[in-house]
From TrEMBL:
InterPro entries assigned: 4HFCP_synth
Alphabetic keyword roster: Lyase, Schiff base
Highest taxon of source: Bacteria
Signal peptide per UniProt: none
Function of the protein: Catalyzes the formation of 4-(hydroxymethyl)-2-furancarboxaldehyde phosphate (4-HFC-P) from two molecules of glyceraldehyde-3-P (GA-3-P).
Swiss-Prot/TrEMBL catalytic activity: 2 D-glyceraldehyde 3-phosphate = 4-(hydroxymethyl)-2-furancarboxaldehyde phosphate + phosphate + 2 H2O
Record EC number: 4.2.3.153
Taxonomic placement: Bacteria, Pseudomonadati, Pseudomonadota, Alphaproteobacteria, Rhodospirillales
Stated name of the protein: (5-formylfuran-3-yl)methyl phosphate synthase
Active site: residue positions: 28, 89
Amino acid sequence: MTGWLASIANAAEISLILPTGPDILDLKDPTAGALGAWDDENIVATVRDLANTPGRPRLSATIGDHPMRPDVVIPAARRIAATGVDFVKIGFAPDGAPERCIDALAPLTAEGAGLIAVLFADLWPSDPCCLPIDRLAAAGFRGVMLDTAGKRHGLRHHWQDAQLEAFVSCARAHRLLAGLAGSLRVADIPALMALSPDYLGFRGALCGGERTAGIDPQAAAQVAAAITTPQPRPSAPSRS
Ligand SMILES: O=C[C@H](O)COP(=O)(O)O
């Protein structure tokens, strides 16, 4: 079953998106780039406000956009983990020392933090073998999400579906949750659901195309409907 993640820009958007039933509410400031972070106090307040909501979605929050240095990434991840969100999203770019940052996060996962790595499809080579997936698994990450740093082109512009399928399989083989995002549109949903990722992530599509505009409940309902619509099974090859 593929679930879906909705990135929300502020607490006021919660009441607009909750009726559409996202599996994960992702607290992210879209005006500050692909990994714009919320203020810690607002994350803590949202965790607290939703704590008693029956069937509430899980919460994720990003640590923000940081240079790939352990002395910067580790404290930022630790701070967001302390807010009580279910998942902490950390972006890894190939520049700098992503591997050292990943390894240095192992103590945090050992303490129970649910870390999700965000790898940018427009920055890393389009081959899962070139991604540090084995390293993420060894460090105890819960999942890995392929997203895009630039939002002009969607994920499927940068990676072909066969490459995305290989990414999902590779994450699964390492027992990581696999997520796909990056300017996804409603029209992308059937093809991506066929790859069976654990999650598809959205912001722009929930806002009618422009991710810095607010959530448009009608657009969000269309995304939700496309995710929950049963997908046709691939037909069995005919014997002749
Ligand atoms: O985590 C998912 C992203 O917020 C997706 O944003 P986007 O659909 O605008 O690329």
